Every structure is written in C-alpha cells, then in structure tokens.
C-alpha cells in the first residue's frame, strides 16, 4: 500500500476525463487536417518549401533527438538500479551490461544523426547549395571512426556522471524502482512507435517533395500506398520522434514539472512537423498522420502503465 501511494504521488497520472477529451479533440483536428491534405497536399508543399530555411535545417538536425534521449535515460536508470541490487549478482550484471549497451548505443545514434545532418549542412554551404538539402533516408559521413568513437565516449561519460551523481544517486529505492518501470514503458513506447512508422514508410513508398520530378507527375496522395520502392515520405519519422518528447513528462515527479514537459513535448512535436514541410522532406499528410498516430500510441501506453502498475501495487 505504501508503494501504491508513492506511485500515486509521483506517477504519470492524468485525469481520465482530461485524457479522453484531449484524445477526442486531437482526433478531430487530425481528421480535419487530413481532409485538407487529401486535396491540397502538393499545393501546400509547393507554397511553403524553402530549402534555405534555417528553421527547417535546425529541426532537421535535432528533431529526432527525443527518441534517443528516452532510450539513453532508460539505460541510465537501469545502470543505477543494477548498482543498488548487487545482492542478486546475476540479475545485476545482466541488467548493468544491457543498460550500458543501450545507453551507449543510443548516444552513438544520437551523435551520428546530429553530426550527419550538420556535416550535410556545412557541405551544402561549401558547395553553394541550399543549406537544408539532405538525404533523409541515408546518413552522410560523420568523420573518421576513431574520432566518432572518441566524441561518443567523452559525451557519454560526461552525461552519465551528471545523471548518476546529480539525479539518480539521490533517489530513494522506491523512487528508483518507479523510474525503472517508467523506463521500461517509455522504451517500449518509443520502440513500438518506431516500428510502426518504419513499416508504414516501407510499405507506402511515397515520394518526398524533394524527390518529385520536374513535372511532379510522381506525386501520389497519402491514401495511395505504392508498395516497397525505396521512397519513405509517409509517415514522417522526424515528427514521430518529435512528439515522443512528451514521454519526458513521465520521468518527472512534480505535477508542475510534468505539465511543463508535456506542453513542451507537444510544442516540440508541432515545430518539428512544420519544419519537415518547410524543408521539403514531407507533405502535410505525412506529418499529420505521424503526429496523431504516435500520440495515440503514447496515450495507450501511458494508460497501460497507470492501470497495470497501480493495480499491481494495490495488492
């Protein structure tokens, strides 16, 4: 019962009526935007594309960060929990090694994405091309392997020291156990959202705005799946990652902080989505569908966390 009150106090619990109202309103907005996109996707894209947009280039570079940060935080929590439970050495060792591997891998992925887009932008400027031109379905080089490894190691050690000493070290055993549960659900949420997004991308085979030919005859509606052809405009991966920023609110212990992080996550997701249209990487329908599909996944997983964890702790 004591553990249950801890979860009630610091858990990611929103009033059910509020959640349901937000879901209904979001669904209506989604339907309206998709109807508009059905008829005006290409026109909207042609009207707003700006490959020289600094706004679009910045969010293209850092827009996917939330998914890597969620995994990194989850790995750090696993490390802290393993170090607290050395009595069961087999469990502690496997959890520690797995958590270190997850957090290192995600730090490397984060740096690869950011450095790739950064080098691409620098290269574009050097060659007098629009700064935002980039291949969203392939990575540019990020320098030598040794340099990439060194940067990753230094950044990883710095942030690990900060998180372990100034955050996780100060948590009680009960709070750390709660963080571990949140980390599991948060990681599953991001993983599932990524898998759904990647599957739809491959199967839809939609040309991106910057991949259209001069006469734009290869444009297809979002309602028309083309099959696997190497093109991956629908739905937007960046937008999926952007709205995943909402998941940071799950890790907060104070109501006010959770609210701020939730609003920040929604705003971040919207800005990332708009930036993808501006930079010519996606159409309005790609962004809209991805935003609300990911939001629905987050909604379901958060509700599952509340129901399963709260019910189990009541016992």
Automatic annotation (TrEMBL):
The question of whether Membrane is a record keyword is answered with yes
Q: Could you tell me which Gene3D superfamilies the record lists for this protein?
A: Phosphatidic acid phosphatase type 2/haloperoxidase (1.20.144.10)
**What positions does the domain Phosphatidic acid phosphatase type 2/haloperoxidase occupy?**
179-302
Q: Where do the TM regions start and end?
A: 21-45, 65-83, 90-107, 145-167, 176-193, 234-253, 260-281, 287-305
SMART domains per record: acidPPc
Q: Does the keyword Transcription regulation apply?
A: no
Q: Which CDD domains match?
A: PAP2_like_6 (cd03396)
Q: Which UniProt keywords apply?
A: Membrane, Transmembrane, Transmembrane helix
SUPFAM superfamilies hit by this protein: Acid phosphatase/Vanadium-dependent haloperoxidase
Q: What's the protein name?
A: PAP2 family protein
